[in-house]
Amino acid sequence: MIPADVDGVLRVADEVGHALESGRPVVALETTLVSHGFAHGRGLLAAQQAEQRVRAGGAVPCTIGIVDGIVRAGLGEAELVRFAEAGTQARKVGASDIAACVVQGALGATTVGGTLAVCRLLGIRFMGTGGIGGVHRGFAENLDISGDLVQLAQTPAMLVSSGAKAILDVSATAELLETLSVPVLGWRTDTLPVFYRGAGGPPVAARLDSAADAARVAATHWRLAGSSGLLLGRAPDPELDIEPVLAEAVSRVQQAGVTGQAVTPAVLALVEELTGGRSVAVNQQLIADNAALAAEVAVAYAARSDK
Question: What SUPFAM superfamilies does the record tag this protein with (predicted)?
Fold first, then answer.
C-alpha cells in the first residue's frame, strides 16, 4: 500500500503492489545503471537481464526511477528504453535529489541510495545491484562519500552487490559501513569483493553459504537492530583484474577536473575503452547474478515464519 502522504507523487506498478500486499518476495533494482552505467544504451540489456533473473528466481522485480515527476516503483519496457536512450541526460538521483526531481517533472535515474529510500517507503526488503557507492580514493584530501552508505544504514533491506565500486577506497568504505552498524557479509567468500574481482577486499563480518542462512541472518538482524540494512557481497564470475587500468582511469578523470556524481560514469567509460570492452561483459554478468541471488534470498525470507 502506498503511504498516504506520498499519494500522487509515487506510483506502484500493479504487479509490485499485489506482491507487497500478499507478502510475495520483491527485489528492487536501480535505474542509474541503465542510463549512466553503460555507454551506447547497453544499460537496457543489463536491466532486462536483471529483471529476467529475478523472475526466474521466483520473485517480482521492481525497477525504480522517476518519470515525468512521478516516482515509479516498477517500470515497464517503454520506461526502461527511455532511460537507456536518455543516457547521462537523465538526472542521477540520490535520496537527497528525489524531491527536486519530482517537483521539476524531470526524468530521474535512481542510484542505490535513491532506490533504497523508495524501498524504505514501501517496505521492500531486498535489492540487487552491481556495486555500492562509498568512500572515494583520496578522501583525506577531497572528502567524497556516496550517500548510498547512509541510506543503507537507514533502510531495513539487504543489498546484494559485488562489494563497492572498483573506483573507490574499498577498505575505507568497509570501515564506514562498520561505523554505521551495517553488517558486511560475504556470499561464499571470506572477504568483501572488489567489484570486478572477488579477492583483495577486507574481511567480512560473516560468511554465508546458503540463501536460507542469509534470510535467517537478515530476519534476526531486523528483529534486533530494527531499521538498518545489510550488505551481502557476492564475488563476480568471471572476474577481471583491472587495477592498473582503473588507476589510470581515475587519474585521468581527476586531472580533467571531474567531480561528484559525474566521476563514476566517466571512469567506467574510460575503463571500457582501456579494456577493449571486457569490463562491460563482466559488469553486465555480475549485475544479473546479483539480482538472481537477491531473488533467491528474498524467496527464502518470504518462506520464514520469523520475518
Answer: Indigoidine synthase A-like
Only one residue has cell 539487504, namely 158
pTM: 0.90
| Cβ burial, residue 104 (10 Å; 0-12/13-18/19+) | exposed
DSSP annotation of 42 = T
How many angstroms separate the CA atoms of 121 and 125, rounded? Answer: 11
Number of domain units in the chain: 1
Q: Minimum mean pLDDT among 48-52, 116-120, 162-166: which range?
A: 162-166
pLDDT in tens, 255-264: 888 777 677 7
Q: Using CA atoms in the order 204, 208, 212, 217, what is the torsion angle rounded to 10 degrees? A: -30
Catalytic residue among 51, 79, 92, 165: 165
Report if residue 290 sits inside a domain: yes
What H or E segment, with its residue span, contains residue 71? Answer: strand 70-73
Domain containing 199: what range? 10-301
Please report which helix (H) or strand (E) contains residue 67, including its range. strand 60-67
Kindly name the residue from 30, 51, 79, 272 that is annotated as catalytic. Answer: 30
Structure confidence at residue 219 (pLDDT): 96
Q: 165 an active-site residue? A: yes
Annotated catalytic residue 85: no
CA angle 58, 59, 64 (to 5 degrees): 155
The x, y and z cell numbers of residue 120, run together, are 524504505
Cis peptide preceding 238, ω within 30 of 0: yes
